[in-house]
Design brief:
With 243 residues, this protein is an alpha/beta fold. The chain is built from eight helices and eight strands, in the order βββαβαβαβαααβαβα. Helix content is 31%, strand content 20%. Strands 1-2-4-3-5-6-7-8 form an eight-stranded mixed β-sheet, with helices on both faces.
């Protein structure tokens, strides 16, 4: 399989990078933008999703994996969020077809994916994998240990609230919202996923919810795990045709 790789820069920091993986031009059937997790500290980085990206290229998708600043290097809220919004703009400036890409965020990357589209009324399609989005509840439940308090520390010091960092998209922002839960997730509790689903339903977003049996947190983004088959199928089904 031929995979064309390139790097798109979207800012001054070395972290302001998008890794783009594409099949031969005549085989591009859809586009996917991935946002990695790692609790905003970069316990994970964009390159960790390269196997996932290459697997999706094999299905005919062009894939962009967004890198952003970690908390310890300028990513305090809203820094990483602003990076992800800028990354989407840079992709669209390079090729307007990226405006129709499905966006997939894993763990804390789900918060960034939602934040990047909230308030833009663009009708984007999102697939959230083991999402950590309601940051106030995540902090209360101890998800990620000190990750959420660290992310919002400067905002809190300036008089802000933790809840300010939770994106609140409207129906105009999203045309599809798919939430994938790993049944044996050791990092994101079912309680948090359930509460987030209830919030999105109350906001009129009509989320589709899938639970992958026996899957753990990282299995959702690992092509060598059986759980990835479900993720792959949902991304294909959610992605619109290439434009």
């Amino acid at each position: 399989m031929t995979v064309r790789e390139s790097i798109l820069r979207y800012g001054a920091s070395p972290w302001h990078r998008i890794d783009v993986y594409q099949p031969p031009q005549e085989r591009v059937q859809s586009r996917v933008v991935l946002f990695h997790g790692g609790f905003w500290r970069h316990d994970r980085i964009a390159r960790d999703l390269e196997p996932m990206a290459v697997a999706l290229v094999g299905d005919g998708s062009a894939v962009a994996v967004v890198e952003y600043r970690p908390v310890w290097d300028g990513g305090w809220w809203p820094g990483a969020q602003d990076d992800c919004t800028a990354a989407l703009d840079a992709l669209a400036e390079q090729d307007a077809g990226w405006d129709t890409a499905v966006l997939a965020g894993h763990s804390a990357g789900a918060q960034l994916a939602l934040a990047a589209v909230a308030g833009r009324s663009a009708g984007r399609r999102l697939v959230l994998l083991a999402p950590v989005v309601d940051l106030e509840r995540a902090a209360a439940l101890g998800v990620g240990g000190s990750a959420v308090p660290h992310l919002v520390s400067r905002h809190l010091a300036a008089g802000g609230r933790c809840a300010d960092a939770t994106p609140r998209p409207t129906a105009a922002d999203l045309s599809a919202l798919v939430v994938v839960e790993a049944a044996a997730d050791q990092a994101v509790p079912t309680e948090l996923v359930a509460e987030q689903l209830a919030q999105w339903s109350a906001a009129g977003l009509a989320p589709e919810h899938r639970v992958v049996p026996q899957a753990r947190h990282m299995h959702l983004v690992n092509p060598e795990r059986a759980a990835f088959t479900t993720v792959r199928e949902l991304l294909i089904a959610t992605a619109g045709p290439v434009s």
